[in-house]
Specification:
2 domains; 12 strands; 3-stranded antiparallel β-sheet; 7-stranded mixed β-sheet; Aspartate Aminotransferase, domain 2; binds pyridoxal-5'-phosphate; 13% strand; alpha/beta; Aspartate Aminotransferase, domain 1
């Protein structure tokens, strides 16, 4: 069969590809340490598992509302309001199959062919491919390590044209671990106020996972209320990647309706049992999130200490999420170093080229401290033998 051109153009996710290679090597008996995947290694907290089991027992097995369960939407709005000046209600929330689908729906709903989307890089692998599917034009802006990989107001202003429709920004960031400070956001918002045609999609999926800094939300800026889409979900902070629940929040009712029409034609609604579990995650005690955050913080300290001892690794200490993104250009390109480390050290990571920055590699530290120590020992040894 002939594949449609828009799908032919679509790149495969490099992190998923690497996970598949990792699995293949393990099946051949190779002891590979996987640092390529962006998912917590912890189990889903007990009270959330229990909510899922109760949902099964209580026959949450029927179709539900397209926008998601009212209880979950209300709870998602309530959690967002704890860190917002914009006040959200259940009506402003659309629950989807993971944050990934929420982002996809948002892009499909506002991007027309030829519309420009500003995408600061390094950034998560899927954004640009989603924009391509919508036939939008991706305008990449390379952020710099000396700016902590954050977009500067000057860079933003220069990138905006009459065709700019959307700024897509992720804080805390995957893959760099950078977190925009209040002052940095103040300055970006000041520029955005001059360009009312530019909407903002703020991917804040890692917001609970920050280390020594505050994850300031774009929803702190009421002046953006009618053109701001905030993305969040349960995958990362509640160790629920497989439940596939995420959402968008937006005060523009017409936009949310558009996204709901699209979702209604695609999937009807997210899985009901998973929504009940996510509702328990949102409504229950947040101690489990703090416990996991502390574990990630300890691992971050450890990996930074060990990475600093590796000649040729240059990095900015991450402030959020669970990735280290060293610049390895003194050793080789990101692609070359990743390949070398997989073959020689049996450590799987992802090349920065997947995130729009071929000078770097991404190491996920969502693995045990023992694995981090062993992986960094192997990397150091393999690189010293080049
Ligand atoms: N946004 C970012 C920045 C991510 O890193 C990921 C997952 O890797 C997602 C969104 C998607 O999350 P979900 O599992 O909720 O689809």
């Amino acid at each position: 069969m002939k594949i449609a051109e828009r799908i032919e153009r679509l790149a495969e996710s490099q992190s998923l590809q690497m996970a598949a290679r990792c699995q293949q090597m393990r099946e051949q008996g190779v002891d590979v340490i996987g640092m390529s995947l962006g998912e917590p290694d912890m189990d889903t907290p007990q009270h959330i598992q229990q909510a899922a089991q109760e949902a099964v027992a209580n026959h949450w097995s029927h179709y539900g509302p397209v926008r998601g369960l009212p209880g979950l939407r209300e709870a998602a709005a309530m959690r967002q309001n704890e860190r917002s000046k914009i006040v959200y209600t259940a009506n402003d929330v659309l629950v989807s199959v993971g944050a990934k689908m929420a982002i996809y729906n948002a892009i499909q709903t506002i991007i027309n062919p030829g519309d420009e989307v500003i995408l600061p890089t390094p950034c998560w692998v899927s954004y640009s491919e989603m924009v391509k599917v919508a036939e939008g034009r991706v305008v990449n802006i390379a952020t710099r390590m000396e700016d902590q990989y954050c977009l500067t107001p000057d860079q933003l202003r220069k990138a905006i044209t009459p065709k700019t429709r959307l700024l897509l920004l992720c804080t805390p960031n995957n893959p760099t671990g950078s977190v925009y400070s209040r002052q940095q956001l103040d300055e970006l918002v000041a520029v955005l106020e001059e360009y009312p045609q530019v909407a903002v999609l703020a991917d804040e999926i890692y917001s609970p996972l920050v280390y020594g800094v505050e994850a300031v939300s774009f929803a702190q800026y009421p002046q953006l209320a009618d053109r701001l889409i905030v993305i969040n979900g349960v995958s990362k902070a509640y160790a629920m990647t497989g439940y596939r629940i995420g959402w968008m929040l937006c005060k523009d009712a017409k936009f949310i309706s558009g996204c709901a029409r699209l979702q209604g034609q695609q999937i009807t609604c997210a899985t009901m049992v998973a929504q009940k579990a996510a509702e328990a995650a949102m409504k229950g005690s947040q101690d489990c999130v703090e416990d996991m955050r502390k574990v990630f913080e300890e691992r971050k300290e450890l990996i930074c200490k060990l990475a600093a001892e590796i000649p040729g690794f240059k990095f900015d200490e991450p402030k959020g999420a669970f990735y280290l993104f060293p610049n390895v250009s003194a050793i080789g390109s990101g692609d070359q170093v990743v390949e070398y480390l997989l073959e020689k050290a049996h450590v799987a990571c992802v090349s920065g080229s997947a995130f729009g920055c071929d000078d770097c590699i991404r190491l996920s530290y969502a693995i045990s401290t023992e694995q981090i120590k062993e992986a960094m020992r192997r990397i150091k040894e393999a690189l010293s033998q080049r």
